[in-house]
Q: What sequence folds into this?
């Protein structure tokens, strides 16, 4: 089991160029991926996306890459290239009969965009994917660590649900007798008499309405399936989320049938534990 929160960094150096890739992940229903690459490596975005999708199935994932050139100084700005841009702008403005309106800020932006950088080659592209792979390995380790903690928490929640289901089953066994007692008391208060056969039929109908055996059996089955998902090797976050919906459905049905105060208290506790299970399941990949 793996969680969805993690951070990883991958660093690779090629010649005078150093690549630093950071991958951050948090909870999300699906895979929401954002990739930010330097302009020099923008063409590699699809390759990075494929690598991330091959490693992660769920979560909001942010991938950022920084490209650093060793020994870079202010002289790295190509003054001649910037001058060419300024001359070209002025030439076009003159040809169109318009004022170029150039300011220091415009020249600064042109200089930053034309800053000299190491040419992008196959080695640099391969280094990017290697750095991404290292970052993803670190993220996987972090998510596995979180998953181990989640496994223990989910086990506790499932054990609590199983315990409450057993207590509810014991309470449900007494429900027909309590209903019969209430019926007899009502008849006595009304000083009414009912044919013994008719009374037996009425009690049988009440017992059928109060029967939650099927709901509690399904609850137990869902808990067993939950344990399999928690301890399985596959990503189980979506399945656990769906399982919580089914657990809540059975708890609601049982609660609508059992009306006494003690049973209601148990159902409220049961639904509370299911909600806690669901909240933790949101953290599972």
A:
């Amino acid at each position: 089991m793996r969680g969805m929160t993690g951070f990883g960094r991958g660093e690779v150096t090629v010649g005078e160029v150093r690549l630093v890739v950071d991958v951050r992940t948090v909870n999300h229903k699906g895979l929401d991926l954002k990739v930010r690459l330097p302009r020099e490596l923008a063409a590699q975005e699809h390759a990075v996306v494929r690598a991330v999708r091959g490693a992660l199935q769920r979560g909001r994932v942010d991938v950022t890459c920084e490209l650093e050139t060793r020994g870079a100084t202010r002289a790295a700005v190509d003054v001649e290239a910037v001058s060419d841009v300024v001359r070209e702008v002025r030439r076009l403005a003159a040809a169109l009969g318009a004022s170029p309106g150039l300011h220091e800020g415009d020249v600064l932006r042109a200089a930053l965009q034309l800053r000299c950088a190491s040419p992008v080659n196959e080695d640099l592209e391969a280094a990017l994917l290697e750095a991404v792979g290292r970052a993803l390995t670190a993220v996987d380790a972090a998510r596995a660590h979180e998953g181990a903690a989640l496994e223990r928490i989910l086990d506790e929640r499932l054990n609590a649900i199983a315990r409450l289901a057993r207590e509810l089953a014991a309470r449900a066994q007494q429900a027909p007798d309590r209903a019969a007692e209430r019926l007899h008391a009502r008849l006595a208060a009304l000083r009414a008499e009912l044919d013994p056969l008719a009374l037996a039929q009425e009690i049988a109908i009440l017992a059928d309405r109060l029967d939650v055996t099927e709901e509690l059996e399904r609850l137990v089955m869902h808990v067993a399936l939950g344990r399999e998902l928690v301890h399985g090797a596959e990503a189980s976050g979506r399945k656990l989320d769906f399982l919580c919906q089914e657990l809540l459905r059975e708890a609601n049905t049982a609660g609508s049938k059992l009306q006494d105060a003690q049973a209601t208290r148990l159902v409220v506790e049961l639904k509370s534990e299911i909600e806690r299970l669901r909240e933790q399941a949101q953290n599972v990949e």
About this structure: The radius of gyration is 33 Å. The mean pLDDT is 83. The longest helix spans residues 122-173. Residues 155 and 227 are 7 Å apart (CA to CA).
